[in-house]
Fold this protein.
Amino acid sequence: MTIKEVAEKFDMTNDTLRYYEKVGLVGPVKKNSSGIRDYSEEDLKRIEFIKCMRSAGISIEVLKKYVDLYDEGENTKLERQQLLEEEQKKLEEKIKTMTDALEKLKFKIELYKTDKLDEYL
Amino acid sequence: MTIKEVAEKFDMTNDTLRYYEKVGLVGPVKKNSSGIRDYSEEDLKRIEFIKCMRSAGISIEVLKKYVDLYDEGENTKLERQQLLEEEQKKLEEKIKTMTDALEKLKFKIELYKTDKLDEYL
DNA sequence: TTATCACTTAGAGTCTAGTCTAAGTCAATA
DNA sequence: TATTGACTTAGACTAGACTCTAAGTGATAA
């Protein structure tokens, strides 16, 4: 699969894909005889995972660490699991924070709707 | 209330508070005879709101727009409400995205726990 | 054969949201 | 009185995550 196809499939830019490869999140992707990238199934799976985790706000740095541990082999399993559990915790907290903010936002909108807005901001 | 007290109260830095003032999110904050900031109750309420919305990922730019509309007066009420509703929608989508990612993360952790991890990454 | 187009690279530039620095003022304390 | 410490300013710097540019290669269309 070419970089263009991958970019379309996952709705991201070629630049981002090359950037992820440069920082070591994906690949190194195989190149054909003219030096053009040909993404493998495994590359695609990694990209999908990375994209999903990025959309949740997990940093490139953390993901890079996870990928590196993975590439180190079996003996890093526990450490990888712990890393994921740590991110799970952070993500749950973030969702909580955002849900609270959403409630406040909804409340404020309600004030606008019922024209009871006599407050600050 | 001094900048230091405000910063402590809301767990942010003096720099951030001055930055918010510089970009027009807060204030202009009253200064005493020696030029020291003295935050009013209204300033505090704005800061609390801003902080809450920032923690949900709403951009400075959007918040600035909202504050500006507010300062324009009554006749921007509808526009303000629409802006908030737009942000509500975005926030709900973001929470959904993050919740989905969280589920995937939990699933992966489960695979680690049950030692069924035979996949990619 | 020449031009077009998609790809390649290294590296520079951009955006957001702060964060830090340097130089200066003022009030209070040793 | 001298110095300490908290505050002030303008403006430079940073981190994270891309995003763009310039210069080049190679396959295909006119």
Remarks:
- Residues 2-4, 14, 18, 31, 34-37 of chain A lie near DNA strand C (CB under 10 Å from a C1').
